[in-house]
Amino acid sequence: MQNRVYNFSAGPAILPEDVLKEAQENLFALPGVGMSILEISHRSKTFDKIHNEAKADLKSLLGISDNYDVLFLQGGASLQFSMVPLNLMPPKNKADYILTGSWSKKAQKEAKRVGTVNVAASTESDVFNHIPKQEELKLDPDASYVHFTSNNTIYGTEWHKEPEVGNVPLVCDASSDILSRKIDVNKYALIYAGAQKNMGPAGVTLVILRKDLLERSPDSLHTMLNYKTHSENNSLYNTPSSFGIYIIGLVAKWLIKNGGLDAMHKVNKEKADLLYKCIDESKGFFKGHALTDSRSLMNITFRLPSEDLEKKLIAEATAAGFDGVKGHRSVGGLRASIYNAFPKKGVEALVEFMKDFQKKNG
Ligand code: PMP
Question: Is the peptide bond before 16 cis (omega within 30 degrees of 0)?
């Protein structure tokens, strides 16, 4: 077995080692099946079981009730930027979007092709360094839905409590913090998330959708773009990402084995606190991008006094086995993505490394 580095990548991201080992062991042949998950039919009994267990485990982890569908779709979270407005905007054809980063802007761009978008709030003028306060939201009580991004992967900000939107359906892009903590799914009309950060490999997108919303989907929609198609066919209208669903299933079992989402949230908080403490105690050498009350537990973004020092830290960190710490170009600096599967000892090691770097270069 080759040594593994500490993978701080924003996504595709680190997966639990136990999951990788089990998948590796079974990749040649699933026990008792004689074929791998890559080779079996998505209509087979074996796959049915894998699929249904993945769904049931997600439902139990997130406390999803039976009035919601759990779908595994393709096209990434980015296709949901289009599917959400195409299905949910009619008949009023207007929706509220809260802009807290590049991904919410991309979602808004697609919604504008379908109807009228009211920007309920935007923190762009502050380089998306915080989450707007409830009283700042200019919500339209007659909107078809309100869309927000629960965790802003690029800027490192996160909603610690979902916006209050009254009776308007709440739609959430939870790509980068799904399964990192318990949420009250009943507050949401639809949640979508690409798998490749906290759930599994790229190529499968989880959609949790309140079933009554299906009435809105116009029959004129292209078959594959209509949520009804996927709901009526249990995500099997066409060939799904069977490998992706299999890995999501293994990750869900790993989460259950490790105490569920409350336990995960506790560790996520401990990990993020270690890094934020290091930033806060550096006397300005490390400067966090996100304002304190908006800090993400998943993506920790920070800068150094100069770009030269940032380049030096990234190069030295990479050489020392800390991979993927370069920040996104729109923020610059560094970003440490520490999703569920990222081990606490890796965060502790990075903190030691950062302190040492400051001592030598501060
Ligand atoms: N939303 C968020 C919050 C993301 O972080 C990303 C990807 N980094 C996306 C959407 C787009 O996801 P995908 O690549 O699966 O389309």
Answer: no
